[in-house]
Amino acid sequence: AERHGHVPLVREALIADRRLPADCRHMLLVKLGETLKGSPLVLAMMGAARADRVMRDACVKASVTLIEGTRMEEHAALIEHLRLRGDLTASFIIRTIAHGKVDFF
Description:
- By secondary structure, the protein is mainly α.
- The longest helix has 21 residues, at 48-68.
- The protein contains 6 helices and no strands.
- The two termini are 25 Å apart.
- It has one domain (8-104).
């Protein structure tokens, strides 16, 4: 995921594999967001600053959705991954709790 997540066919194959850990799935979500953010069409329609904001918001929403499908045993690894990336913010925690995912923490 880290080395080849930017390649669309590889990214698609990895996401389809149910054995892929949640932290790797999150990494692929972020790579997909970055790819879309850099798309000439998106940049032309939104501009770089707005595309960046939209991408970050979409990644947060996707992360909350990812948590819903993550087994309890993987929570610690996903939390650590989010922390290391700087994504485990107060805003993210509040959003996650608001979606009823109190047991994630």
